Amino acid sequence: MKFYQYPKCSTCVKARKYLELNRISVDSINIVEQAPSKSELELMLASYDGNIRKLFNTSGMQYRELNMKDRLPSMEVDQALDLLASNGMLVKRPFLLKDGKGIVGFKESDWDSFLG
User: Fold this and answer.
1) How far apart are CA 116 and CA 45, in angstroms?
2) pTM value > 0.85
């Protein structure tokens, strides 16, 4: 199981504590140092029924700086995935992959269902 996170992200810290409390072993990866691969992003996209916006950190500074709110609707999915794979700060986090499926963000009840 891969857990992409940003150590300074409070939501990632909550997710990491959740994993520790539930004794769930993960490969923890700093999303800034190593963004998810395009194939991992494609798996995540399938988990969200093709809604590419779900994979973006819409509250992030880089999302705003790159004017993604206006650019994203006209982007090809392939272009958006390439952009995410090249810049981990644009990716919604935490980002957890398990058995070819994934979940982004952290809401304990959703993680209970996903990991259960």
Assistant:
1) 21
2) yes
- Cα torsion 115, 58, 62, 109 to 10°: value is -20
d(CA 35, CA 78): 16
Would you state the structure tokens that stand for residue 86, as one six-digit string?
């090249």
From residue 63, alpha-carbon distances to 11, 53, 70, 72, 89 in Å are 18, 11, 10, 10, 8
Contact 1, 98 (CB under 8 A): yes
Gap between the Cα atoms of 82 and 80, Å rounded:
5
- How many angstroms separate the CA atoms of 88 and 33, rounded? 8
Q: Which CATH topology does 2-115 take? A: Glutaredoxin (3.40.30)
Of 87, 61, 56, 85, nearest to 73 by C-alpha is 56
Least Cα distance to 5 among 40, 31, 26, 24 occurs for 31
Q: Which two tokens stand for residue 45?
A: 């996209």
pLDDT at 3: 98
pLDDT lower than 50: segments of the chain: none
